[in-house]
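Hi L.,

As promised, DUF5648 domain-containing protein:
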Amino acid sequence: MPYIRRAVVALALLVAVAVVVVRPGDRAYAADQQGKVTRPVPLLELRTAGNAGWFWTLNEAEANSAASSGMSLQHTRLGYLRAQPFSGSQPIYRIRVLAKPTYLLSASKQECDTLDQSGGYDCEGIVGYAAASQQPGTDELWRMSNGSEWRVVPEAQRAAFTAKGYRTDGPLGYVYPTYDQVGAIYFGSFDADGNQDLMAHVKSVYGRDGDWWGGVRDFAGSGVPVNRWHWPQTDFSDLEPSIGYYDDSQPATLEKQISAASSAGLSYFTFYWYWNPAGGGAEQYIDGLKAFLKAANRSSMDFSVMPCLHPWSNGDVSLHLPEDQIDKAAKTIADEYLGQPNYLRANDGRPMIQVCDTRGIGDGTATSVDAEATKRFTDALRTEARNEYGEDLLITLNADLGVPAGASGFDGTQCQGQYDTSRSFQHYADNQRAYFANFPGTLMRCASSGFDDRPRDGIAIADPGANATEQQLEASFHWYDDHSIDRFGTLLANVQADIDASARPPAVDNFVLVYAWNEWHEGGHIEPNKRDGCAYLAAIQAKLHLLGSGCAS
């Protein structure tokens, strides 16, 4: 599974996206993918040319176009609004001042019309929608003025603006001061069609046929004789899901998982996606993903696919993507997933694809990437998305493979499963923000709930021998002796602090990808378990300020 040690590092940055000016409410803008995003998105604030005034929009395409015309995006945190009306909402109007390059916002249609009719203003239309009354997680947003300019001010900053000479000029409605989009990586291979090589080793070591939970259930000692190999006194009772050892090819399994995740505020699953080149090429290990799409409550969460195009094989199943199958693989992703109504979109509306590994594309190896073939793959994905849906994509690359080069076809980076070689989870948590700083531009942040691959002993990792020293065990296996859910909470708080202080592009700046929902063989699991219940999900919900009724295991 896709923990990738840092190997190939390319330097340079991202790919620019062409934009067109769009006024609020102008639905004729054909490339306005953001109209397909129904969740709250950040209200963007720009300084007009010459610092003469202020401009606001929810539409990233409009913000980019305005910036190309001399405005400058400000990295302020005003709140999150919706582009569409919702129950209990009120519109916010944008008004242009004709005498100078500046704007103001208003919650009053009457004010907008009156100013428009005065001849000195242009009522441009609705910029977005706020709640008319306070809802859970929202604060009031205000218009303030110092007599020469209007500002949009969150409740938390109103006193500071008052101290600078601004007066309150009226409320704009209630908005979310933060609105993180948090999801988890989903390993959809706990089923009969999963890793046959692993199951063969389970048969050899533990004597059980067709057991995709082999190793995990043995370390937990649940339903089978306990076998913790070199660590007989260590507590592994967390290695049993609260819903039991399941078959993820069953939609009923996914329905339970969707319910647990969404009630804690998670908004998406990101599914590992594999390719098997045998017989002309086809998807591999997709039963969990297909079960998600059949789940009765699938609309409660979004999803995305994460292509893991590895340079290795699971037994006799190759996971690499030959160059002559690139177009077929891209078309499969487009046909099967990109058109789904709950496919994950960035704040600007682009469907998101997070690429986990490129080293298996074309002539890539474990230590090198075939850059030309990789670019062919990202180009093919974009071509299929444009041809089938008239849309552009946001494609990011696993941070383990370095910062994507400008000509690579990637728009930015996502980080995912991490293991700190210090072997200290506290060290990992304390240094996560410094790690993020290594990746400029568009970044989908991450948080790893843990890492412990000892359950793979004998079935996926060669055992170093009955008399192995601690040094030999540490050379073979990866785990943290100081891991705790409290330290996971510290990590999450650091992730949130990085979001709050960010000056990155806004497309995915509030997205967090958690490793993992169910990497049970690698110790990355936030799925409720028999020992800890919903503790991981509760920490995520609390530290990242997620809405939801709360997980009940």
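Residues 371-389 form the longest helix (19 residues).

Thanks again for sending the construct details.

K.
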